[in-house]
Specification:
Helices cover about 75% and strands about 5% of the residues. By secondary structure, it is mainly alpha-helical. The protein has a two-stranded antiparallel sheet.
Amino acid sequence: MAVTDDAILRVREMIMSGELKPGDRLPREADLADRLGLSRNSLREAVRALSLVRVLDVRQGDGTYVSSLRAGELLGALSFVLDLHRSEESVLEMLEVRRILEPAATATAALSVGDEDIEALRKLCDATEQAGSVEELVEYDLQFHRRIVAAAGNNYLAQLMDTLAGPTVRVRIWRGISQGGAVDRTVAEHRAIVAALEARQPELARSWATVHVAGVEQWLRDLG
């Protein structure tokens, strides 16, 4: 194992054990390196790596702190990486992941979705039908799926789904859908999902979500 990797694992263990908690300041570099049996250079590289993935927060002139470790912050680094992968193959692979996760989230949402959520989802379907640009389609689609996943009540899942299918990915998807003339069919699937949610039928909601994501995936494959 590389020395830097070992240093990363040591710091991670301190966080996982609770020795270092969110918001805690790390000991002085020299003290921490001596305590962990590491060189200051390897510890410095570990801190730099952990700050890039937002586990640590390096504050110039004030020291290094453990971040809040909230899902949104930690998954932000993943979002940056995914935005770099914009090929058609990468978009299809992200859709495959959505096809696994989103139906489960939709089924869970059917058990807890509120009437105000149903009304908001209906309005988003109407707005999508009337959208005049790809940018509007993307925005309404983001709001639609975010609302459903949020209703499932799992913050980590919500952040992960948002990361996997953020604006950059959805622009590519909706551009393909609009060029292929499939907007009406996509909106119809959205409405079917809403109807299943309103009926509080988890398995029907799961099925329609699967049909929806798999259909978009297949449509893009056919276009390619």
